[in-house]
Automatic annotation (TrEMBL), chain A:
This is Transmembrane channel-like protein. The gene is TMC2. It comes from Astatotilapia calliptera. Residues 77-90 have a biased composition (Basic residues). PANTHER family: TRANSMEMBRANE CHANNEL-LIKE PROTEIN 2, TRANSMEMBRANE CHANNEL-RELATED. Pfam families: TMC (PF07810). The chain crosses the membrane at residues 243-264, 318-336, 410-431, 484-504, 627-647, 676-697, 733-757. Residues 38-48, 64-76, 777-788, 815-826 have a biased composition (Basic and acidic residues). GO terms for biological process: detection of mechanical stimulus involved in sensory perception of sound; vestibular reflex. Residues 860-873 have a biased composition (Pro residues). InterPro entries: TMC (IPR038900), TMC_dom (IPR012496). Keywords: Membrane, Transmembrane, Transmembrane helix. Residues 36-91, 111-131, 775-887 are annotated as: Disordered.
TrEMBL record, chain B:
One of its GO terms (molecular function) is calcium ion binding. It comes from Astatotilapia calliptera (Eastern happy). Its main location: membrane. CDD domains: EFh (cd00051). Keywords: Calcium, Cell membrane, Cell projection, Cytoplasm, Magnesium, Membrane, Metal-binding, Repeat. GO terms for biological process: calcium ion homeostasis. Residues 103-138, 144-179 form the EF-hand domain. This is Calcium and integrin-binding family member 2. It holds the Pfam family EF-hand_7. Coiled coil: none annotated. InterPro entries: CIBP, EF-hand-dom_pair, EF_Hand_1_Ca_BS, EF_hand_dom. GO terms for cellular component: cytoplasm; photoreceptor inner segment; photoreceptor outer segment; sarcolemma; stereocilium.
Amino acid sequence: MRRKTKLPGGVEEQTGRSWPRNVVAMMMRMKARMSLLRGREEEQPIRRKEAKPRTVMRRTVMWGKERRERREEGRKERRRKKKRRPRVRRTPLNSLTVVYAGFDSVCPFLPSSSDSNSNSSEEEESMSEGEMARLMEEVEEKKKLIANIRNKPWRMQRRLKLLKEAQEFVDKFEGALGKGKGRKWYAYKVMMTKKWIKFQRDFENFRTACIPWERKIKEVESHFGSSVASYFIFLRWMYGMNLVLFGFTFGLVVIPEVLMGLPYGSIPRKTVPRAEQDTAQDYSVLMDFNGYCKYSVLFYGYYNDQRTVGVLKFRLPLSYLMVGIGTFGYSLMLVIRTMAKNADVGGGDGEDSDFTFAWKMFTSWDYLIGNAETADNKYASITTSFKESIVDEQENQKDENIHLRRFLRVLANFLITCSLGGSGYLIYFVVKRSQEFATRDDLSWYEKNEMEIVMSLLGLVCPPLFETIAELEDYHPRIALKWQLGRIFALFLGNLYTFLFALFDEVNTKLEEEQSIKNASIWAMKEYYANYSRLMNDSEATPPPMDPADVIRGPCWETAVGIEFVKLTVSDIQVSYLTILIGDFARAVIVRFLNYCWCWDLEAGFPSYGEFDISGNVLGLVFNQGMIWMGAFYAPGLVGINVLRLLSSMYYQCWAVMATNVPHERVFKASKSNNFYMGLLLLVLFLSLLPVVYTIMTLPPSFDCGPFSGKDKMFDIIMETIDLDLPAFMGTLFSYAANPGLIIPAVLLMVLAIYYLNSVSEAYQNSNMELKKKMKMARDEEKNRRNNADTTNQVMKDLEDLLPNRSLIPPAPPEPEKPPEQEPKPKPTKTKPGTAGKGVNLQKDVALASSNPNARGPVSRPPGPRGPGPGPGAGPGRGRGRGPPPR
Amino acid sequence: MGNKQTTFTEEQLEAYQDCTFFTRKEILRLHARYRELAPHLVPLDYTNNPDIKVPMTLIVTMPELKENPFRERIVETFSEDGQGNLSFSDFIDMFSALCEASPRELKTIYAFKIYDFNRDNFICKEDLEKTLNKLTKGELTPEEVTLVCDKAIEEADLDGDNKLSFADFENMISKAPDFLRYRHLFCYVFIF
């Protein structure tokens, strides 16, 4: 106990402070009572019996009190109440020692002494409300301590000790709180709280254990900095989202169809046609997702249009449509929610700081770095940044640089816009030409593949070109990355556009073809029925006994689209994996091993090792996701393929980046919120939403394949469900809801809501800015005041010394207002050359802010309230330019 | 888990979880890491709180610290004897303070201690110079160093005593934007 009081710091002081207040009175009374009680021990048994159920609790209370008593004794008793000592000594020795032992050992419930038992009932009544409240307060305090102990800057030993102590205290005392009947309930509550905390902790453990790849990503991060890690975090997020989509699609569409739908080969749409059967199992055919793949559960065409499947009457077509729309709904919601959350975390990338050097000094080291190379890079980049700041500081009046840089930036943007426009036109031109070619037959190999060649050439040439041009701009790499992402994104949009264009062409031809086939087959059917009834003289015609493989069928454009997307995804996977294998791995191997026998240093010189291409990888991921969103409706299996891809990609790329890449030359920190990635994703989501919704709403589904066959439009399935399955009033309800008279006001309302929320957020932003400004001002003011007060202003000091009766002046003479027009201590008018306007603002604000105290009247104010503020320099402050304070 | 559980008792684990920001798995892992540093010194069984310390020279070889310019200071700061010898409690304390979950206030306190090379409870110019030289591996010229240190003190010093007290330091750090603060003040990952 003695030892503890010696330890420095918070809790001792706290408890030290709280003990006397709480305890002395109680203790006194208790001691008196104890000595009394010992005398009338014999009377007790009856009452003790009465009090039996509550005794245990009470005992603990008593016991703790004794403990406190002892503690007090150590501290105060000796000093203050010498006469009591003998009586205290009379307390049975064993009780004290036991208590003491229990106090420091783990076990809290050593048998307490008999006398505490005996006087417990007496004590019960006599514990007053105030004591109770105090005790409660103290217990709360201890609990708070337990919850916060990890936040205290103490040595672990001490923490453990205090923790144990606090826990014991709480264990013992909290049972005593609450009264009479409520006590049991209180104890129960306490127990449940404990259990709940334990559960929470376990759950937390479980949850962290559930986040996959945490270690892997951290490892990458420690080697390559947070920018590369941000890609992997994005990849993981994407995986999570796709997993959910996969769950929906497979759980609600694929599995019901497999388990409860008709088996393969039962109807034409589920059978490979006779003509294709010979080659249906060839590897090359399967790789093109024809043959058995095409007539499998992976694609739209396989699904039957039965209204319900299985014994559960599962409405498969409805569920198919709902899952298709739900995929988009869920993705939209998730992306937007994540963005909002990130925006919360992100905060401002406030670069306009007052602490350029101080921050650089204390916060520039990235403590995550654990790799020698990265560390070297970091040292270099810190040195450079310091040097940059030094140069900035020294030449911060010179504006030529800024003009040059601005000019270069404009130039770079101009160049890039030109090349983007050029490539856009090129794509447009090529698409036009390919449409022309489509009507001709005599095409050379080049003419056939012109579009693909041009597209991949553009994809190959443009990004490095942009990167080169971007060097003109000389942005921070983090900002440069954003620009680069945006530009390549714009380029890739061309890619997307051509792809969609080709696809729609294909769909249109397929639709025409289908129309003719449909007519032909209907005609054939009629013919057959006519013949049948004529030959058999039977008007009840049965359908022709045809093998499902022989039935004439339409082209099923949905499946064709689905196949297109799956093929694209698969080839994308192949290409990106091969790129890594060749571009990174082979290069690394060559550089590493050929270096032994080469003319120049391959590792440091020309080929070197690859850097991880963040922008390319992120965009690849984003566009791939776009393909998935677009294709998932037509190929439910696509989501599964994508999940596999992301999963393998995680391991593969982690390995590749660790094994073959080197950290970036300028290791930079990613901004905490990767909202930029999310923004791109959102854009792509919208772009991919459009064609799908368009097809669902306008194009007629194929007549002989897919869950919507036989309907005019895909969404007719909803009407059908409303008509047939829901009660009639729901149908009318829906028809009312679909009334334009209702929809237009609803849209208007939404627009208004958006407008309102927007303006509210703007207002918040404004006030945020205002507050920031005020904080900055307050800081400047305070700093200047302190500076002036203490050291810098020699004149003022001298003046101060000349004042008569200096010692009699109250601590805060009426002064510290700074003259508004005069910024005290010409701060190197804050560094950034481009912020001239800001400086002006600041001046204005100074005027605004200080006008307030001035208005209060400088003379009549009582001297007390507006002191220079607490702190080491809290001496009398002095205004700077005002001359001597008014006397 | 059955027979490997003997490293700590349940109470110890609970106590450590209360006192640090780690989950029990992490604590066990930390112990494994700690033991890895000096397998002959550190016993597997910690149920009776053996009083064992691993010297600084071993601690700083950990991959988490190896490249850190302030590694010696960090270890010294967290060691109870001030010499850099860490007992397991100190060790776990150190990583708890350094880990991602620990709050900014705590980190600020420890960061201040770390940067205070001469342990006078102020970061004065010599401390700043040492910090800067460690950060840049001495690549700056003496004039530049002086300039930077002066500027840094001028920026952050509120009370005008030409050195940074904890209040100054805290004020400065608290104004740093989040992305600087989060992992750059002080934050560690375990490469378990």
